[in-house]
Amino acid sequence: ALYFAASWCPDCVASKPYVSAVFKSQADGEKVFDLVYVSSDNDSDQMKGEMEPGWDAIEFEKVEDRSNLKKHFGVCAFKEMGGLGITREQRKGGIPTMVLLEKATCEVLSGDAIPDIMGDKKVDNPLDLWKSLLPKKS
Fold first, then answer.
1. Three-state DSSP class for 132?
2. Are 96 and 103 in contact (CB under 8 A)?
């Protein structure tokens, strides 16, 4: 999962406990997903403050890598659009957004899994839902 978020974003602050809870709910040895934090924070200290144990991240100093992911998936904070060269038409989502990818192929399984874990469309067992999105092994 690529978790696009920032410490200064009120919606991200609201989503973080849900993202953290579903990540921690994975049984040892039965990990459904890894989580990579793609920061829109203002500095590395803010970013480090958002990190949870077990999460990976694109290092704050790797601005080009983070920018390329934001451009590729069309996900960024509104205030980043100009600097990234993303138009309203190209922007698929703001922050927070959690893109689910199949690890081996990088196929997008869900363009945004945040609604699966919080809000009106929340599902009872997001891990089961996400497992069902994985390609069937033959």
1. helix
2. no
Q: What is the mean pLDDT of residues 51-78?
A: 96
**Of the candidates 95, 97, 65, which has an alpha carbon nearest to the alpha carbon of residue 80?**
95
End-to-end C-alpha distance for the chain, whole angstroms: 24
pLDDT, one tens digit per residue, over 23-32 is: 999 977 788 8
Q: For residue 122, how far is the Cα from the chain centroid? A: 16
The answer to whether the beta carbons of residues 131 and 123 sit under 8 Å apart is no
* Helix, strand, or coil (residue 81): helix
Count the Cβ atoms, other than its own, within 10 Å of residue 117.
Answer: 21
User: pLDDT of 109-136, one tens digit each?
Assistant: 999 999 999 999 999 999 999 999 998 8
Mean pLDDT of 78-98: 96
Q: What distance in Å separates the CA atoms of residue 81 and residue 90, rounded to the nearest whole number?
A: 10
User: Under a CB-based contact definition with an 8 Å cutoff, are residues 57 and 51 in contact?
Assistant: yes
Coil, helix or strand for 33?
coil
